[in-house]
Amino acid sequence: MHTMRKSAYKSGVAGKSNALKSAARARRFRRRLLAWYYAHKRDLPWRENRDPYRIWLSEIMLQQTRVAAVVGYYAKFLQRFPSVEKLAAAREESVLAAWSGLGYYRRARMLHAAAKVLVKAHGGIFPNTSEDLKKLPGIGRYTAAAIASIAFAQPVAVVDGNVERVLQRIAGREISGEHLWEEAQAILDPSQPGEFNQAMMELGATVCVPGQPLCHSCPVHSSCATRGPRQSAGKALRLRKREISYMLRRKSGSFFLVQRAKNAKLMPGMWELPELADKQFGKSKALLVLRHSITVTDYRVKVVEDITPEVVLNPSTGKWIQEGRLAQLPLTGLTRKILRSLKML
Ligand code: SF4
């Protein structure tokens, strides 16, 4: 038996939700939501079965990345590392290369570290409770609950951005912190926790969307206190703007790339085009200009070709890489984007 907070677990089993007021309303809500989910759920590759390895991988990839962007990477990653044993035995560089383009590379490093622990300490078998899953590297409260409920039917609720928005609109008020988890647990259908959790997230992702929700197609319309967008008290996030320039050097089918320092705070050990020192590229014409956003910064990225190497930052860490080898290297997302835009990858 896992050791989840007693109050949350109890309220989940009893179905006593503050937003839905009575057990009967909670039951109706669950029935309608699940019927809608079974009829309308998206056909996603990680929903094919309940293999905890596949579910874990999808949950980690989906953190900070949209479903549409994850689908292709997911299939390729599974092809390369079809089991937790194969992932544990891989070199870090290969794991990062397979992750390259998805961004937030710490996720890939933690995934790799957790695979090693799973194989070494658990014989490759996943723990089946959220409490035990949380002990693995890179698995937090949300991910542990998602794996435990979807793969092992443990009655434990998840809270992500989608669930938070749905819960707040249903309740018609701001709910935050631990209260969100308690409310999610109270609404959860303990007999089908994995499907119910996915149904809540699916509703938030496809119907109860940020901005203008599609209330006319909502299966739980009659349970909702808001039926429309809630007025947010928060201010819109302001992106910082920055200009950055890179150099593209190529000769006989090779590109000159540099490796980020192993102890760099961001994307350590990954390969990228050499960055140019500020405004030192003189009159060289930009080969490409694109925009790239990372967390709170909006970059205007210039790529210049054929420029004297002295203006390149850190040329000593650079190497000529054959074009055919690029796909095997852990490239930064921006470098991958640039090479793709130039049809070189
Ligand atoms: S009725 Fe509208 S606001 Fe309420 S849960 Fe459904 S989609 Fe969201």
Structural summary, described in words:
The protein has two domains: 6-223, Hypothetical protein, domain 2 (Endonuclease III, domain 1, Orthogonal Bundle); 240-341, Alpha-Beta Complex (Nucleoside Triphosphate Pyrophosphohydrolase), CATH 3.90.79. Mean pLDDT is 87; it is low at 1-15. The protein has 345 residues and is of the alpha+beta class. It is globular, with a radius of gyration of 23 Å. Helix 1 runs parallel beside helix 11. The strands form two sheets. Strands 2, 3, 4 and 7 form a four-stranded antiparallel beta sheet that branches. It is 42% helix and 12% strand. The longest helix has 18 residues, at 23-40. Iron/sulfur cluster is lined by residues 166, 169-170, 207-208, 213-215, 218, 220-221, 224, 226-228.
Catalogue the ligands.
iron/sulfur cluster
Q: How many distinct domains? A: 2
**Fourth-level CATH superfamily of the largest domain:** Hypothetical protein, domain 2
How many helical stretches?
Answer: 13
Percent of residues in helical segments? Answer: 40-55%
CATH topology of the largest domain: Endonuclease III, domain 1
What's the SSE blueprint?
Elements (H helix, E strand, L loop, with lengths): L5 H9 L8 H18 L11 H11 L4 H14 L3 H6 L2 H8 L6 H17 L7 H4 L7 H12 L8 H11 L5 H11 L5 H14 L33 E9 L1 E2 L2 E6 L11 E2 L13 E9 L2 E9 L12 E5 L10 H9 L4
Helix pairs in contact: 1-11, 2-12, 3-4, 3-9, 9-12, 10-12
The protein binds iron/sulfur cluster (SF4).
